[in-house]
Amino acid sequence: xxxxxxxxxxxxxxxxxxxxxxxxxxxxxxxxxxxxxxxxxxxxxxxxxxxxxxxxxxxxxxxxxxxxxxxxxxxxxxxxxxxxxxxxxxxxxxxxxxxxxxxxxxxxxxxxxxx
Amino acid sequence: xxxxxxxxxxxxxxxxxxxxxxxxxxxxxxxxxxxxxxxxxxxxxxxxxxxxxxxxxxxxxxxxxxxxxxxxxxxxxxxxxxxxxxxxxxxxxxxxxxxxxxxxxxxxxxxxxx
Lengths: 115, 114
Fold this sequence. Notes:
The complex is a heterodimer. Chain A is mainly beta. Chain A contains no helices and eleven strands. Chain B is mainly beta.
């Protein structure tokens, strides 16, 4: 079955370190997204991509970067981890069809703690 | 006014009860609407889309009121397994296709008790 996987699922890192969260989907979806979810804020969009070599900033992109070198992967990099980036991160994907009704499928989440 | 607002709850209801959640959105040009379900420490999953004419899926009924800019979700005959957080999701894009513009509400927590 097609799926979307994230790794690592849990990570503890130190302030100032670079961290990369991997996201891999096997649906051949054009659209991929990264969200973070925090108590009191709900899901907030970090970055998104509509296809290979396309990346766009979301609502809370500062301190994060992404690259899209193929259809399947959208890794999220924290250039210099900060305690404010402690959160659960969800990767998601959807099929591009030019309509707004496409279902977004989420990965299982990556719990990141910055100490 | 926040873009998508939901009552955070929690809604504590007995099994078999009927419960309704409302969600309001601020962008009158919003084109598509959804309800997602999220279990504790799990990823959100699509529960149902919300259509202008209203739609039903088993015990779940979703309604859209464009004039008042709100969406509702009705759950009949609540089950223990319905316990979760329900997220209201709005795509404010006039032209559709812009999945990056999805706006998620903070969610309403439902707890169904025996």
